[in-house]
Amino acid sequence: MKEYLNHLWKEKLIIILVLFSSFLLGFTLTSVVKTYTSEYQFSFDVKANKEISFTSFLSEEFLLSVQKDFQNKDNHYYDNINIKDLINDDAISISNRDSTYTITTKSSYYEDFFIKTSKTVSTRAKTFLKTAITKYCSQNEYTLDLYQTLDFKKVSPVSNGVIYSVSGGSAILFTGLYVFFSLLKYKKYGEIELSPYDNQKTFFTPFHKQYWKEAFKAFKSTKNISVLAMLLGIMLICKAFSLPTGFGNLGISLTYIFFAVGAMLYGPVAGLVLGLLSDTLGYILYQSSMTFFIGYTLQAALTGFIYGLLLYRARISYSRCFISRIFVNFLMNVIFGSICWGIICSYTFDQTLSYALIFSLPKNIIFLVPQSLVLYLIIKALSPALYHLDLIEENQIEVLLIKKDKLSSKEETRQNN
Fold first, then answer.
1. Pairwise CA distance, residues 37 & 83, whole Å
2. Which of 69, 167, 270, 374 is the most buried (most CB within 10 A)?
3. What confidence tens digit (pLDDT) does each residue in 266-292 have?
């Protein structure tokens, strides 16, 4: 037991990172749940000389007419509100108490947006619902005084106490699981010595002539091209599924995992090409209604290049995955991405900076550790299979999950062949 505790002490840094990462993971997941379950409430007073009824207000026909009014004014910001789902999912309702009416609707059916003039965040629901209720009252000859509008607020059944409780629980759970499985692995394999960097197969830095010779060989093999094509296909599939993060139009998907794996296997040149192809084909497949912007293509290419520089022919560790995500999150996403969005929206420098600080920076800080941890765990899980397929070298794996005798037998087979 003493030997294991000494072994555990050597891994203190990664244990701290697991503790911190799992806390952020729990925080992120509960925040996403909060975003999906939170509601907008819009209260108002209305008067009439006849019986007041809002039954037809909740009809698909009426809400679609409101949406069409925006379109007729060449305002397409409300096109993404799915009225049919809003009605079918009972995501909007109206109640009456003491002549005060309250509209309640799920916030996940609307989007937040950045106001360029005031540099603040608002919501599509606010304007849409106010426009809808004004039109409805006008059609039915109800008196609605907008100056007496009571409130428009966002409420959530998930409190901050629940968020921190779940975050703390996930930190304890995942750290405990890591220690438990670390003990099982230690009992089975013990300490495994890792072969050093040899500057022929693995490299500590990319500043080696041999490194770039290997990197430029990525497309000289049919096998390599086939694997890259397969990874590109998976990346394009992942682009179709993106979870909202609560930070404006910024979402998150699993594309980055396969992006990083491709760059890890075949280097920065292959990563650059993967980025170019995935962004261009992704635009053709999923974003044909948006204006194509070459800046985002360049951002994707440089992201693949960064993954390749840090992960190709290197010993894969959590620290490398973490550092790669630092460069991608802050250099490419926050700085480069915000500049691209500012150019598209014709923001001034101050507005672009505000957008980065309000949306991009918080999102990338929150997801930094969870994304790097998921990336490391997946690469670690895939390492034995990738090694047996001759896609990575033996000394790229930081903690080998293959017994020494299996490694030796494979090396003997290689030499005999």
1. 18
2. 270
3. 999 999 999 999 999 988 888 655 678
In degrees, rounded to 5, the angle at the alpha carbon of residue 171 between the alpha carbons of residues 169 and 175 is 120
pLDDT for residue 297 is more than 80: yes
- pLDDT given for residue 194 in this prediction: 45
Contact 142, 56 (CB under 8 A): no
**Chain position carrying tokens 């059609």:** 139
Q: Tell me the DSSP string of 28-97.
A: HHHHHHHHHH-EEEEEEE-B-SS----TGGGSHHHHHHHHHHHHHTT--TTTT--HHHHHHTT-EEEEEE
Burial label, 96 (beta-carbon count in 10 A; 0-12, 13-18, 19+) = exposed
Mean pLDDT of the chain: 82
* Residue of 181, 182, 189 whose CA lies nearest to 404: 189
Tokens of 96: 């009456």
Q: Cα 343 to chain center, whole Å? A: 23
**Rounded to the nearest 5°, which phi and psi values hold at 397?**
-90, 120
Q: What is the pTM of this model?
A: 0.62
Residue 351: C-alpha distances to residues 36, 117, 337, 346, 357 (Å): 28, 8, 14, 9, 10
Q: Count how many Cα atoms sit within 13 Å of the Cα of residue 40 in the half-sphere of its side chain.
A: 22
Q: What is the CA radius of gyration of the chain?
A: 27
Stretch among 42-56, 109-123, 261-275, 354-368 having the lowest mean pLDDT: 109-123
On whether the CB atoms of residues 370 and 243 are closer than 8 A, the answer is: no
pLDDT at 147: 52
How far is 202 from 216, CA to CA, in rounded Å? 15
Q: Which two tokens stand for residue 301?
A: 């290419």
HSE toward the beta carbon, residue 346, CA cutoff 13 A: 1
